[in-house]
């Protein structure tokens, strides 16, 4: 359904643009020494002021250089693009005097000013199949927000659609692994020269809207490789220990008395047959989350595999009389979930997005909002064994080694499923 956006009364309170933001806004202008370049890449730290200024510049360029053409605007998903870019961009365009018609069912925005009118189509590039969505389009330009999260096939297909004379590419991302395909194919100096791409690297200092207090808060949100990428803006290899910010003196305590624990418990489960099965119990403790006890059984170590029914018996004993909210279980453990539900237990299938979960755990550990009873010895031991897989890193992927990771997975299931949205809101 075609609809014209309602006027928004609230105005953007921009600080004066920084020198780097002005380069983004004007690099394509008639007076720019790089106006004939084929595109621009802006990478760097989070909250560095690159996303909105990139999208604004993109539309201004399109309305300046073309009339009656189609353009692409891409995010990891359409929903994430709407949330991170589109809502602010459309408001800003209206405040600048453009007429905006948003056809949500078609994921198309028509931008008009005077006799000039262009269509901007929104695409999601979350996986290999996404390239099919953009096939057959003829584009005069394409904007890629969070391009490092998109598969190469999608980006290749989208750039190939930019066949109108004078078309340009616009890329924006936070850094990833230096072996990542986008870094290797677009950001390396020789690749930038070959493709005639303007490259601008951003830090939080390039966003004049951020106060020192806000910047300091963001610096506490990440640790390890994620700090290097999101705060320092470095293309950093994920190597060594995953949770290198874990410190027993800071994160491990003696089990407090029941009177100091608040609310009902969560139980998180990593299920294995011959591989270990792990249960972790989580309780609120003075505003933090404490792993109060663990269950760890390895069929391989004990030379005896347990059945779903036996593990369910162990779960009933593990919970005992403790009030609990739910049992968070690895979604692949379908038969075990069925057995728990047959016993009347409240079960929630875990969010199994590995990297998102690891990032959230890192945030909680950095804040010391995640604690462990000293009695959870197997869980504590895994912190010192849970490592990035170096061969995956060399291929441009971030993957943990699938070994000594069972308590780590159970912890991640709890954090991602029960706490993920809370942590995201706080950050």
Describe this entry's structure for a reader.
The protein has 17 helices and 16 strands. The protein is an alpha/beta fold. It has two domains: 17-220, Rossmann fold (3-Layer(aba) Sandwich), CATH 3.40.50; 248-426, Nucleotidyltransferase, domain 5 (2-Layer Sandwich). The strands form two sheets. The protein has a nine-stranded mixed beta sheet, with helices on both faces. α6 packs across α7 (189-195). It is elongated and about 75 Å long.
For the report, how would you describe the main beta sheet?
9 strands, mixed
Q: What's the CATH H-level superfamily name of the largest domain?
A: P-loop containing nucleotide triphosphate hydrolases
| Top-tier CATH class of the largest domain | Alpha Beta
**CATH T-level fold name of the largest domain:** Rossmann fold
SSE class:
alpha/beta
Note the total helix count: 17
Note the quaternary state here.
single chain
Helix content: 25-40%
The CATH architecture designation of the largest domain is 3-Layer(aba) Sandwich
Summary?
This protein is α/β, with parallel strands linked by helices. It is 37% helix and 22% strand.
């Amino acid at each position: 359904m075609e609809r014209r956006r309602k006027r928004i009364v609230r105005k953007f309170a921009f600080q004066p643009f920084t020198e780097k933001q002005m380069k983004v806004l004007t690099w394509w202008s008639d007076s720019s020494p790089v106006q004939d370049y084929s595109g621009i890449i802006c990478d760097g730290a989070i909250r560095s002021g690159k996303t909105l200024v990139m999208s604004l510049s993109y539309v201004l360029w399109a309305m300046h250089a073309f009339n009656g053409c189609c353009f692409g605007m891409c995010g990891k998903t359409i929903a994430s693009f709407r949330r991170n870019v589109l809502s602010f961009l459309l408001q800003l365009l209206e405040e600048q005097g453009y007429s905006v018609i948003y056809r949500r069912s078609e994921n198309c925005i028509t931008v008009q000013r005077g006799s000039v009118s262009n269509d901007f189509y929104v695409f999601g590039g979350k996986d290999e199949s996404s390239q099919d969505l953009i096939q057959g389009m003829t584009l005069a330009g394409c904007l890629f927000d969070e391009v490092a999260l998109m598969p190469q096939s999608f980006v290749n297909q989208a750039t190939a659609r930019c066949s109108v004379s004078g078309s340009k590419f616009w890329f924006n991302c936070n850094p990833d692994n230096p072996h990542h395909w986008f870094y290797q194919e677009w950001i390396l100096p020789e690749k930038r020269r070959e493709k005639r791409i303007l490259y601008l690297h951003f830090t939080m200092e390039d966003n004049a809207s951020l106060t020192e207090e806000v910047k300091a808060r963001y610096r506490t949100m990440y640790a390890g490789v994620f700090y290097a990428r999101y705060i320092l803006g470095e293309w950093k290899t994920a190597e060594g220990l995953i949770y290198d910010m874990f410190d027993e003196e800071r994160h491990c305590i003696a089990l407090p008395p029941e009177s100091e624990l608040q609310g009902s418990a969560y139980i998180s489960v990593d299920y294995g047959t011959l591989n270990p099965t792990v249960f972790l119990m989580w309780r609120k403790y003075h505003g933090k989350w404490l792993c109060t006890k663990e269950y760890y059984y390895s069929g391989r170590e004990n030379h005896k595999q347990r059945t779903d029914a036996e593990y369910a018996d162990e779960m009933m004993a593990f919970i005992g009389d403790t009030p609990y909210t739910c049992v968070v279980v690895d979604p692949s453990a379908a038969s075990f979930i069925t057995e728990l539900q047959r016993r009347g237990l409240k079960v929630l299938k875990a969010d199994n997005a590995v990297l998102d979960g690891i990032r959230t755990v890192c945030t909680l550990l950095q804040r010391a909002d995640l604690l462990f009873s000293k009695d959870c010895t197997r869980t504590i031991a895994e912190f010192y064994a849970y490592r990035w897989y170096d061969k995956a890193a060399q291929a441009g992927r971030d993957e943990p080694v699938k070994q000594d990771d069972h308590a780590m997975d159970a912890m991640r299931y709890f954090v991602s499923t029960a706490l993920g949205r809370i942590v995201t809101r706080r950050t």
